[in-house]
Design brief:
Helix content: 10-25%
Number of strands: 25
Shape: elongated
Strand order of the largest sheet: 3-4-5-17-16-6
Mean pLDDT: 77
Distance between the termini: 55 Å
Radius of gyration: 24 Å
């Protein structure tokens, strides 16, 4: 197993930029609520770290029957496959029976609290099912004996496992069409016990740090189940190095290693020009990559509103995480990060101000101020399925874009349980944010109200577009 770290080229600020910003203290954020699309996906909130993968589709499946107020509906139930960016394959089940799965949708490893699992008291039982069934248990004869049947095919095992998961993830009244798969589903549903949420395959904590040049900024702690990692810094870093707590450049690290950005007192801007004292402001990224297996039970979400997945199996896969450092000689020096919080139905923006002046701004019509050497978390309330896209720009002129969609409830909870009968699980390719037309709304469940909901949602986004605009609050500096 290996990993690499790289510090991205420094982005500096010259005297002209400082003069233009001399009358402001704090940040400016501009943007509106927007439908999730390619641009939103590219500017998604800072990753929590882990694997990024592309949906391939439903690969091993059987049939199930969903019972709801509209009658009985036969649907496909089974195991998906996703290709990991950089190498590797994931096998997943879905945890949102009524929501469509979009082929080629991009998925990101996500903490449970950023999904419907965060508020689901049975989430731990879903993980137990994953660890005690197919494909984690690939001895189908042994699994059949536990289920009380003579034999199971891979299709039976996948369908029965998915049905058991749906009963806990969606509270769905659903049965496997095959009697053997149904027996397996009953066994798993009956036997499930609570297990703890698995940790991320790779993460950096915190994802953002700040401070003054001439010091080591951090620490940023590595959390991973990879056995070892390596560090490689490109030449064009403006003199910024990634070092350990002893100040020596890091060439290898592991779980628990504490890394620092060593920022020289006078750094170089991207053009190679030195910045004078008082002008030393900039930013650099630390990107972490490793090769490891992703823990069973990790959630995967998509900004295109493709249904949430939960990991059932992983090959050796490429995983990554990023931390950013910002620095300045004086004034407010913010470190910004964001995390979805489904318990509150909000996006939490964390601001750590390491500067000597308050970080003052307006957010959704309310004034906020983060004092010097203080930390504040600002919750931006969002509606279910609400997309967001805005950029926060600090005093140094560097911006952090936050974009995505809040997907905290299963579709059945959000819009009811009327379900459209499905055909073969071959959905039409869709662009991010689009819902495929036609009868095949999803590989493992879909609702015929989805297009209407999308239209209503987009209308609401337009009406509320300015609600999330964040404007600069100007403040005259003294001296």
């Amino acid at each position: 197993m290996c990993a690499s770290y790289s510090a991205r080229s420094v982005r500096g600020r010259g005297a002209a930029g400082l003069a233009a910003l001399a009358l402001t203290s704090g940040l400016v954020a501009t943007g509106v609520l927007a439908a999730a699309g390619p641009a939103a996906a590219e500017g998604r909130p800072q990753s929590q770290g882990g694997a990024t993968a592309t949906m391939g589709g439903l690969k091993t499946y059987g049939a199930a029957v969903l019972h709801d107020e509209g009658g009985d509906h036969q649907i496909s139930a089974g195991l998906f496959e996703m290709a990991v960016d950089g190498g590797g394959m994931l096998q997943t089940y879905c945890v949102d029976i009524h929501n469509p799965t979009q082929k080629d949708a991009k998925y990101y490893e996500t903490p449970w609290n950023g999904t419907s699992l965060g508020a689901n008291r049975n989430a731990g039982k879903i993980r137990w099912i994953l660890k005690h069934s197919y494909p984690q248990v690939n001895d189908l004869a042994a699994l059949a004996r536990k289920a009380g049947v003579k034999n199971l095919t891979e299709q039976d095992a996948a369908a029965g496992t998915q049905v058991a998961i749906w009963r806990y993830s969606d509270g769905a009244h659903v049965d496997a069409a095959d009697a053997r798969a149904e027996k397996l589903a009953d066994y798993l549903h009956r036997s499930a016990r609570d297990l703890a949420e698995p940790k991320a395959s790779l993460s950096l904590d915190p994802p953002a740090v700040s401070g003054r040049p001439g010091h080591r900024l951090g620490p940023v702690t590595v959390h991973t189940d990879a056995s070892s990692v390596t560090v490689a810094s490109p030449a064009d870093t403006g003199g910024v190095r990634i070092v350990g707590k002893d100040g020596k450049p890091v060439t290898s690290a592991k779980n628990g290693s504490r890394l620092y950005f060593d920022v020289p007192r006078t750094a170089a801007d991207p053009d190679g020009n030195s910045t004078a004292p008082g002008d030393a402001a900039g930013s650099a990224d630390l990107t972490v990559q490793a090769s490891t297996t992703v823990p069973v039970g990790r959630a995967f979400t998509s900004d295109s509103r493709s249904q949430t997945q939960i990991l059932a199996g992983s090959s050796e896969s490429t995983v990554s995480a990023t931390a950013v450092a910002t620095w300045a000689d004086k004034g407010a020096i913010p470190a910004l990060s964001a995390q979805k919080d489904c318990d509150k139905g909000a996006l939490d923006i964390k601001v750590v101000n390491k500067g000597d002046k308050a970080y003052t701004f307006e957010l959704m019509g309310a004034a906020h101020s983060v004092p010097a050497a203080a930390t504040r978390t600002i919750a931006i309330p969002l509606q279910e399925d609400q997309a967001y896209d805005f950029t926060i720009t600090g005093p140094d002129g560097l911006g952090q874009r936050f974009a995505g969609v809040l997907d905290c409830k299963t579709q059945g909870v959000a819009v009811g349980t009327k379900t459209q009968t499905l055909g073969e699980p071959v959905p039409a390719p869709a662009k991010a944010g689009e819902v495929p037309d036609g009868t095949n709304l999803a590989e493992t469940g879909g609702t015929d109200t989805t297009p209407l909901i999308a239209a209503i949602g987009l209308s609401l986004l337009v009406l509320g577009a300015t609600a999330l605009s964040i404007v600069r609050k100007k403040k005259t500096t003294q001296g």
